[in-house]
Amino acid sequence: MNRRENLKLLFTGSLASGLLFTSCSPEDKQADLSPKISGGTPGGRIEEEIQRDQRLLSETFFTEEERKKLEVLVDIIMPADEESGSASQAGVPDFIEFMMKDSPGYQTPMRGGMMWLDSYGNDVYGKTFLELSKKERMEVIDLIAWPDKASPEVKGAVTFFNLLRNLTATGYFTSEMGYQYLGYKGNTPNAWDGVPEEVMKKHGVELPEKYLAHYLKPEERGTVAVWDDDGNLIG
Q1: Phi, psi of 187 (to 5 degrees)
Q2: What is the pLDDT of residues 20-52, one digit of tens each?
Q3: Are 164 and 113 in contact (CB under 8 A)?
Q4: Are 93 and 70 contacting, i.e. CB atoms less than 8 angstroms apart?
Q5: Residue 97 in contact with residue 62, Cβ under 8 Å?
Q6: Among 70, 60, 64, CA closest to 91
Q7: pLDDT (tens digit per residue) in 118-164
Q8: First vs last C-alpha separation in the chain
Q9: CA–CA gap between residue 118 and residue 153 (Å, rounded)
Q10: What is d(CA 127, CA 118) in angstroms, rounded to the nearest whole number?
Q11: Alpha helix locations (H) across the chain?
Q12: Given this model, what pLDDT does residue 214 score?
C-alpha cells in the first residue's frame, strides 16, 4: 500500500477528526471554542469572522524560499499518481499558509522545522534542502518521518514533520481534488422508489393504479403536488 492510500484510509477513518490537533498544546485543546457573538451570515460566517478571514488572507507568513520548500515537502508527502494530482496541485500550500495565521501556535514548529532542514543539509551535504537531490532529500525526510524509529536528537524535527503531514493530509482531502479522489459525493439526493410492494401488501394497501403515472418521477421532485377539493391528485 502506498503513502497516498495510507493517508486516504487515515483521513476517512476514526482518526481523521484529530488530525489537526496531534501537535496542539494542552491549552489549545482545552480552549473554549463556543460562539461569543450572536447573529450570522449565510454559510454560518458572522461579519467579524468574515473581516478576520479577509485580514488573514491579506497577510503572508512564508517567505518566498519557505514557500518553495513547502511545495516540495507537501508533494513528497502527497505525490501525484495515476488517479489524482499532487498536494501542491490541490492548493495545499495555500491552505497551510492560511493555517499558519489562523493558528499562530503552528508558526514556531513550522518555521523551526524548515530551518532545521537547511541546517542538517548544510552539516551533512554542504547544501540547503532545496539544493539537495531527490535522493538526498528523501534521506533527510526518512530521518524524521517515522517517529518510532527516529533518534532523540531529531525529536523537534519529528514534531515538525508530524504537523506538516497532518496539515497536508487535511488540506488535500478537504480540497476539490481530494473529494474527487475519495469519491465523496456529499448530500446528494437519491431517487426514492416508494414503499416496497411486499410491505404494502403486508399492510393491505396499494397505490391506486390511476396515480402510478404521477409517482416515482425523480425529475419532478421539485414540483408541488396539487389536489382537488375531493382529495384527488390533479398533478
Answers
A1: -85, 80
A2: 444 455 554 454 444 444 444 456 678 888 888
A3: yes
A4: yes
A5: yes
A6: 70
A7: 999 999 999 999 999 999 999 999 999 999 999 999 999 999 999 99
A8: 55
A9: 16
A10: 7
A11: 3-12, 26-29, 47-58, 64-77, 92-102, 107-125, 134-144, 155-173, 176-182, 197-202
A12: 62
DSSP state of 82: S
> How many angstroms separate the Cα of 64 from the Cα of each of 61, 68, 80, 143, 172?
10, 6, 23, 25, 22
Set of cell numbers at residue 83: 488517479
Nearest residue to 135 (alpha-carbon basis) of 148, 121, 149, 146: 121
**Whole-angstrom Cα distance, residue 168 to residue 144?**
16
Q: Does residue 92 contact residue 168 with C-beta atoms inside 8 Å? A: yes
Long-range contacts of 46-52 (CB under 8 A, 24+ apart): none
Determine how many CB atoms are found less than 10 A away from the CB of residue 224: 5
Query: What type of residue is 143?
Result: L
154-168 as b/e: b if 16+ CB within 10 A: beebbbbbbbbbbbb
d(C-alpha 228, C-alpha 235), whole Å: 10
Rounded CA separation 139/137 (Å)? 5
Q: For residue 93, report the phi and psi dihedrals to the nearest 5 degrees.
A: -55, -35
Write the single-letter amino acid at 169. A
Which residues lie across from 233 on neighbouring strands?
227
Enter the C-alpha cell of residue 145.
518521518
Using CA atoms, how far apart are residues 94 and 107, in angstroms rounded to an integer?
A: 15
- As a whole number, the mean pLDDT across the chain is 81
Q: What phi and psi values does residue 227 have, to the nearest 5 degrees?
A: -120, 150
Q: Which residues face 227 on adjacent strands?
A: 233
